[in-house]
Amino acid sequence: MEKASVVVIGGGATGVGILRDLAMRGVDVLLLEQRDLVNGSSSRYHGLLHSGGRYAVKDAAAGKECIEENTILRKIGKHCVEATEGFFIRLPEDDKAFEEKWVEGCRKVGIPAIPISPEEAWRLEPNLTRRIQSVYRVPDAAIDGFRMAWQNVASARRYGGRVRTYSEVVAIEQSNQQITGVKIKSFLTGAVETIACDFIVNAAGSWAGKIAGLAGIQVHVQPDRGTLLAFNHRLSSRVINRLRPASDGDIFVPHGSITILGTTSSPAESPEDNLPSTQEVLAMMKIGEATFENLGQYRLLRAFTGTRPLYSADPSAKGRGASRNFVILDHAKDNLTGFASIVGGKFTTYRLMAEKMSDLVCRYLKITTPCRTAEEPLVEDASPQLLAKARQYFPAYGTELAASRLGAERLEKVVNSMEQDPEKRQLVCECENVTLAEIETAAKDSTSYCLSDVRRKTRMGMGTCQGAFCIFRSVGAVDSQNLAWGQSTNDLLKEFLQGRWNGIRPILWGSVLREMELTRGIYEGMLNINGVIDNETK
Amino acid sequence: MRQSDVIVIGGGFAGLTAAAVAAKRGKTVTVLSKGVGTLTISGGTIDLLGCGSDGRPFASPAAGLALVDPDHPYSKIGKEAVQAAVDFFLDLCETAGFPYRGNLQEMKWIPTAAGTIKPTCLVPKTMDTAPLAETDMVYAVGFHCLKDYYPHIVAKNLQKLPGYDKTYHIAMVDPRFTAGRDVSALDIARWLDTESGRQDCIEQLRNTVKPGAVLLLPPVLGTRPDYQVLQELEQAVRCRIIETVALPPAMTGFRLRNLLLDHLKSAGVRIVEQAFVAKAIVENGRCLAVVTQNSDRERSYSAQAFILANGGFYGGGLLAEPGKAVEPIFHLPVKAPASQTQWSNPRLFSREQQPFAKIGIAVDSTLRPLAENGSLALENVYIAGRSLAGYDFCFEKSGNGVALASGYQAAMMV
Question: Which of B195, B184, B186 is nearest to B253 (CA)?
Fold first, then answer.
């Protein structure tokens, strides 16, 4: 039977943060995730590293945590953060009195909010509406949720932390009101096994209520739908927020060559209620047009939906009214020792949440090693020598991209593979500059079971063509290396393209529809992977 | 003012076919072409009709034609005209020295790069699978650096299929392009167009494959509409060669396009390239002229009849907005589900056709567009190809088939 001192349930930002924190403190820790890492809310959000401005008025404590964590993450996670800065803009229809409260709130919390003239704002961001009344610069940034998670895991593994994906917790085992282990079921094979442990951390996000329920404990987590839109352009160089109380569809976050607009808020039927709708998209576009008037002319990439795990001690609180602060619940109070849940919170404060949770676990385990996650970088920088070597094989701007994506250790592996075999230098995904060597490295990771998993690790298939070409190459690559996880090549293709389709379907017009005609033309029309077969000869 | 009997808008397979038919009927024809059409993407096979709306394959395209819905373009065109279009096409290819194989009475199943087989009707000689019956030994041949083709996928999947249970080997050919450079099927086809490239390829194949085998290749056997590369390789290596269907760019489509362009030139058809048709001048239900917009100026082209063959959503013949589809030149009615949710199925691949694929222009039996009340919208405009309503070519495997039949029929009506 597999054993661990601590089992962390949930492979979102909080879970991987706890995994890293505990591993760094020398704890024998295993993380269990029901699907792939960051498959829930931690990747289905803006990718905004909050300055705290968003919370300055309503929730000063959250605002303060944001600005502090923002500063820390820029330092330890610099390869995941694009230091774009942000604007808060007020339009004529936004309340002037709120602006005054907001400026005061930022001052109190310690968020630098520097007023600039609309003219200066238009010079810096020419696409912005000319209707701006006032503008403030704040230290917002863009953060890559996928990369942040993977780099946390890479760091945790160096300290002995373990990860098992596609492992769904189906029972919490206890004896004499004391945790003894968890029972897990493989999502892929259905096999059930028990893992013995002394402590369980429930960091399952929107699923936290369900996990607590397995132990007969009530935790009120109300999943709340938020839909976002990805544009295939960088509309602005900075994060753009509306200077008004938090509302639908009013934050734009630039990421590399794309922009994410979000988000909506409506009660979710379940944590899996994550298919976006055209109605949500159109409503958001309409609101977004107040900020960028010609928004409708930009090419969309896809829509996606996540569920915010809103926690309330009062089960009747809903939507944006519920607290965005996090809460740690030690279930010793519910007469079960060795079990704690962490609920609520936001991506920006994931590290702080992990630190507080790990403190509790360490107190329980009588470990006194202090938290060091705020000091040590997630991954080491690649050395100038390694970068020089990498430049021989990567396309011009691909070197820096890959170095950031992979960190020094994995970059070295990838570069060595490219050095030995020139064909491994080929770009599988031209949109995101992903080489064959990198696809193979990601496919070999013990947490990869399909090409969507490889996509989340590499960004393969996340660009303009949404996988139309690179998925075929990726299938060819993993199949030739016997890395296809026992699946047929057609199933690999279908699984991946269906995943992309979920985000394309609600925005099936304009160039997105054109692209889909091509994708279908290739895979259904030409390659017949949908399987019309000759039943005459049978 | 530029005057013709017939103006064809669109230089894809439907448009080029229509131009060839109209020219043969003695008309003066002008083709206004914005791009290159989708032949170079989808390839040169003529998929006539593979399966019905339930996804079950028909015994033959002819059997399927008898069963299509009343709204399907084939129903409007009629079985006789489809047969006549096939005859016209086969005759044209034969005369041009690049004969195609197949007929409406036979469903051809051809291998693809995914290791599947797909139903089609007319294929170039390079894609005829007859040689497979003659041997048990098959080599799936790949080319180094051709990242859009994986011979082991072809071999592994095909051998499980009926008629393909053979002994498979993998053979790799190195076109000796500089490593790190992106190589496409077009590069390899151009390499094989050269004498030295062919000799190099032959040399490499001779060292790997045994005579008497069948070689399954990606579609790379040259860019010209002739069988010179095929014949030379087959003779030298003493094997039969079959090209599979693979990812774009599609050399089989290049060849067919080149064949049609050569033919149209010799038939005196005027082809205007990079001609973006922006609007039409319509009076009393008749189109008098269409107007092209270029970087320099507008030009108008007048004719007795117009064939609209500028593609669907992919080609730009139709444009989609949320919950709405429009035809931008004549502003013809395009019927589309009002709710975006009804445009598509939750599953991308399923046993159901995708509603958005069937969005298009409704026509009568002369392929002239219908107004919303069912009356004739325009007297002298005919619709051919992808912008026709009522068929999902990906699902039913009628890519190039509807284009051929409707291009032929439209030109017979003008």
Answer: B186
Q: What is the pLDDT of residues A250-286, one digit of tens each?
A: 999 999 989 999 999 999 989 999 999 999 999 999 9
Nearest C-alpha in A relative to B53: A532
Global pTM reads 0.95
CB B303 within 8 A of CB B6: yes
SS3 of A291-320: CCCCHHHCCEEEEEEEEEEEECCCCCCCHH
Tens of pLDDT, residue by residue over B244-286, are: 999 999 999 999 999 999 999 999 999 999 999 999 999 999 9
Beta bridge partners of residue A228, listed in sequence order: A262, A304
> Which site among B243, B245, B349, B359 would you substitute to test the A interface, given the most A Cβ atoms closer than 10 Å to its Cβ?
B349
Check if the beta carbon of residue B362 is closer than 8 Å to that of residue B370. yes
B166 burial class (0-12, 13-18, 19+ CB within 10 angstroms)? middle
Task: Give the pLDDT mean for B384-412.
Answer: 97
Q: What is the DSSP letter of B271?
A: E
Q: Report chain A residues whose CB lies below 8 A from the CB of B43.
A: 526
B160: Cβ contacts below 8 Å, ≥ 6 apart: none
B356 closest CB neighbour out of A473, A513, A532: A513
Shortest distance between the Cα of B25 and any Cα of chain A, in A, equals 33
> In terms of CA atoms, which chain A residue is nearest residue B322?
A509
Q: Say whether residue A509 is in contact with chain B using an 8 A CB cutoff.
A: yes
Q: Output the six-digit token pair for A413.
A: 């592996």
Query: What are B267's two structure tokens?
Result: 């038939």
ipTM of the complex: 0.97
Name the average pLDDT for chain B.
Answer: 96
| Whether the predicted pLDDT of A16 surpasses 90 | yes
Min Cα–Cα distance to chain A from B208, Å: 20
* Terminal Cα distance for chain B, rounded: 21
Among A422, A506, A525, the residue with its CB nearest the CB of B42 is A525
**Three-state secondary structure along A387-406?**
HHHHHCCCCCCHHHHHHHHH
Contact residues for B39 (Cβ-Cβ < 8 A; gap 6+): B12, B13, B250, B253, B254, B256, B257, B400
**Residue B1 C-alpha, separation from nearest chain A C-alpha, in angstroms:** 34
Rounded to the nearest 5°, which phi and psi values hold at A314? Answer: -100, 110
How many Cα neighbours within 13 Å face the side chain of B52? 13
**Residue A316: CB atoms within 10 Å:** 9
Among A423, A480, A530, beta carbon nearest to B152:
A480
> CA A510, CA A295: separation in Å to the nearest integer?
13
Contact A534 B107 (CB under 8 A): yes
Question: CA nearest A275 in B: which residue?
Answer: B346
Give the nearest chain B residue to A535 (CA atoms).
Answer: B57
d(CA B368, CA B376) in angstroms, rounded, equals 7
Residue B104, φ and ψ in degrees, nearest 5: -65, -20
Residue A326 is classified by DSSP as E
State which H helix or E strand residue A223 sits in: strand A221-231
Query: Looking up tokens 């020792």, which residue turns up?
Result: A337
| String of DSSP letters for A472-527 | HHHHHHHHHTT-STT--HHHHHHHHHHHHHHHHGGG-SHHHHHHHHHHHIIIIIIS
Q: Is B241 within 8 Å of B219 (Cβ atoms)? A: no
CA distance linking residue B278 with residue B290, whole number of Å: 8
Q: Which residues of A touch B249 (CB under 8 A)?
A: none
Distance from A304 to chain B by nearest Cα, in Å? 15
CB of A419 within 8 A of CB of A390? Answer: no
